[in-house]
Design brief:
The structure is a homodimer.
Chain A (H helix, E strand, L loop, with lengths): L12 E6 L12 H11 L8 E6 H7 L3 E3 L7 H10 L3 H10 E8 L2 E6 L4 E3 L13 E3 L5 H16 L3 E11 L2 E12 L5 E2 L15 E2 L1 H10 L10 E5 L24
Parallel strand pairs in A: 2-8
Antiparallel strand pairs in A: 1-12, 2-12, 3-7, 4-5, 5-6, 8-9, 10-11
Helix pairs in contact in A: 1-5, 3-4
């Protein structure tokens, strides 16, 4: 039994473990180095096919994607929306700038499509857990690239084959409560494709692609308590064939979207 | 170290374990007894606050929610839709009967609201993994009740405090790939409420309710391989305050729904 308690883990088990004692991240910090240090202190043994799930918030912080709201000049549209719904016009302006397309904007909620193609509330602009009263984070420019870079550094340091996911916490149109989704993926397929495989009765399973990266993000989200500063979770025992992967696999194309 | 390999599991770890060797379920089967037997054979040690996640499909089967398609007489609307999109008119008729309201019906896809208030494809009607070519399952009448009954039986037999979730595999409007969601909940809060709690900077976390039951369903879904017959997953180490719970906590009311 190793210090993280795993011995000959059967294929039918998944273990999710938090990395504790991570610092408050600043722009320019070395995220991989901080993760390696926290893992060493926590007695983590790195194994092949461990998936490192990292909250978007700290990736945005180390990449400097923090915006001083005092430097944001709200336009007319932002001012009107802010007045109508009692919001901060600078924050609304920032959301409009981060959005490639506004999907819905009513009753005080903005649902927008980001440059990356993700559809989410406030185009990923978020004020929680950002030091300073007048700052907000925006999404990384290239979350797949962030995941790739983190994965490469961790693999070099540990000598094992890893995967990385950057996750963000989103609402859903027809369900209450937030669930984490993957916005950056490296080293594993974002979609697990069962199409063409037989079901237990030998009939083809129609239209069954599971969103593995989102399942992983949701699972890790259970441990990423929103005020407790546990933004990194390791997932061991997940079965997948290593491949480059991309969160873009999860983006529904316009022609497939029934819900515009 | 117990036979399922856990010793003094810290609070910051979650372990997901499949129950292997479950039978092909038939109407009237005792699901709790089958789970207890598989757990005994698998050397599972039951612990307080273990969450038992069960796929909807086997709950529907034991509750006899299997429909012979030959007994379904398609109406005009079903026939027209089936002709237009090359579908089985009996299956479409069944979807229309299971739906309280049709949300979208175009390009060969039916998104419907079920009697329970869930919005999902085909109102939960599903043909995969049902023995016999001309049969489909429909959702349980009262999935919360199914979860409650299962939880009560397992608690009585094991003497520990458990929670139960019935999960189904759903698509998402703006994301490709399916993710499991909770349709029945007993013994834990479906929503974990962080509203009013401070973030790391002491500012209130706005609008943060995490969909714990959906996170658990998604996590378990990683292990419920669609053709491998692993429809039950145990989750240990999840932090929650035991309470009745209900999947209805996750249903977005009409007035909160931006996406109609």
């Amino acid at each position: 039994v190793t210090s993280n308690g795993i011995r000959d883990m059967p294929r039918s088990q998944i273990r999710l473990t938090t990395l504790d004692g991570l610092p408050e991240f600043q722009p320019g910090d070395n995220l991989a180095a901080a993760i390696l240090m926290a893992a060493r202190r926590g007695g983590i043994v790195w194994r092949d096919n461990t998936v490192v799930v990292v909250a978007q918030k700290i990736v945005s912080k180390v990449e400097g994607k923090i915006v001083e709201l005092n430097a944001v000049e709200p336009g007319e549209r932002a001012q009107e929306f802010a007045r109508q719904f009692d919001k901060d016009p600078r924050l609304i302006e920032l959301v409009l700038r981060e959005a490639k397309r506004i999907v819905r904007m009513e009753r005080g909620v903005i649902i927008a499509e980001t440059r990356h193609g993700f559809v989410c509330a406030n185009a990923g602009v978020d004020r929680s857990n950002v030091p300073g009263l007048d700052r907000a984070t925006v999404l990384p420019d290239d979350p797949d690239g962030s995941a790739r870079a983190l994965r490469a550094r961790l693999q070099t340091a540990t000598g094992v084959r890893l995967a990385a996911i950057i996750s963000d916490t989103w609402g859903r149109p027809w369900r209450l409560g937030l669930v984490d989704c993957a916005i950056g993926v490296a080293g594993l397929p974002a979609l697990r494709d069962y199409r063409g495989l037989p079901d237990r009765q030998g009939r083809p399973l129609h239209a069954t692609r599971l969103a593995l990266a989102d399942q992983l993000a949701a699972a890790a989200g259970m441990l990423m308590e929103k005020s407790a500063g546990r933004p990194v979770v390791l997932a061991e025992g997940v079965e997948f064939r290593p491949q480059d992967g991309s969160a873009r696999e999860l983006v529904r194309g316009e022609e497939e979207n029934l819900f515009r």
